[in-house]
Amino acid sequence: MSAYENEIKQAVRTIENWPDEGVMFRDIMPLLQDAHIFRKLIDSFVHRYQKETVDAVAAIDARGFILGAPLAYELGVPLVPVRKKGKLPYETVSQSYKLEYGEAEIELHTDALKAGDNVVVMDDLIATGGTMLAACELIKKLDANVLEVAAIIDLPDLKGSERLRDAGFNIYSICQFDGL
Ligand SMILES: O=P(O)(O)OC[C@H]1O[C@H](OP(=O)(O)OP(=O)(O)O)[C@H](O)[C@@H]1O
Ligand SMILES: Nc1ncnc2[nH]cnc12
């Protein structure tokens, strides 16, 4: 792990037993409160994608918006918010996915991407991978291509990154934490 990756990992705050007993909540808010770390964080994503052919950044509601917006701005490409159900006013495609308890649904406007667009999908964290996989399905429904899914944090014990890899997606995460 490089020095900057370690600096980012050290800045993540862990809250035990939140929101439920047994969960170690990995809180990215301290990374945003430190302007120096926030800049390094965004720059690391920019550096990874600036030489790639990226046509859009899809950012997942809600914490993915915080990262996806500055990345899209710096790359000079469109920002495509992937929103939770019922928030987008125009015609949508939607995809349901499993949560620990029950189901959720996310949506994209049908005109958000063009067929063949190369898309980076951005969120703060991959746990079970359900959210990222659903976002990738939406992108595929619009005949666009997922170049890579990107997150600050991967929780490999929850097998989300494994599910994403098995489904054929490339993954980039800056740091990993053991446990739930
Ligand atoms: O890999 P998964 O098991 O799908 O979990 C990861 C997702 O969970 C969190 O969002 P949450 O649904 O809590 O919404 P929020 O961003 O509105 O807090 C996180 O920001 C990811 O989007
Ligand atoms: N452990 C965790 N920390 C922060 N966000 C999460 N989303 C799902 N699991 C999470």
Automatic annotation (TrEMBL):
Localization terms from the record: Cytoplasm
The protein, known as: Adenine phosphoribosyltransferase
Role played: Catalyzes a salvage reaction resulting in the formation of AMP, that is energically less costly than de novo synthesis.
Presence of the UniProt keyword Cytoplasm in the record: yes
UniProtKB keywords: Cytoplasm, Glycosyltransferase, Purine salvage, Transferase
Transferase listed as a keyword: yes
Enzyme superclass (EC): transferase
Similarity-based family: Belongs to the purine/pyrimidine phosphoribosyltransferase family.
